[in-house]
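Review this:
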Amino acid sequence: MSIRLRLASVLLLALISAGAQAASHLYRFDPVHSQIFFSVSHNGYSHAIGRLHIARGWLRFDPDDWSSAKTELDIDVGSADMGDAAWSQTLREASLLDAKAHPTAHFVSTSVRKTGADTGLLDGRLTLRGVTRPVQIQFRLNRIGATIFEMKTVAGFSGSAQLDRTDFGITRNPGSIGRLVTVRLEIEAQRDTDARRQYRQETSHATAQ
């Protein structure tokens, strides 16, 4: 094989690889328009509601092949907000979320399967307080489209899951705080072919601090 032919073959393979990467539909989470809500029984009188913010993350989603979807994200545990400063601070203490020792929770997907025209099941592993457990999220694809501002392509999802807090070593106040925690996710992510690399850089920087 001539040098010219070899160079042409290498270039062709590079173009094919670039095309496959572009078709993988990478997105980065938009922390401004993404929210994580949780609720838990308070002495059986009501279900207290709190909120957490996504620190960073990326996802890969192809509307024509849901099984190829993948996501990884970090949740800012220190952002836990119960709507009251004292209550929020209590939630961040070592006996509950332990935000000082474990400032972020980490989720990485293991599989995705489609269950309906716009619904699916996302399986993954959540690390909270240094403990990793499997989690399953039911989700709905709300929309993929271009925004009227800056013409960015955005993917939007809604999801829900239920966690047993004791699985993550959160056992404080069993008589007043419910054991099961309901989680609701409202997610927006912007198309960004560099999302995964940026996530890794940001994660390395956060870890080094």
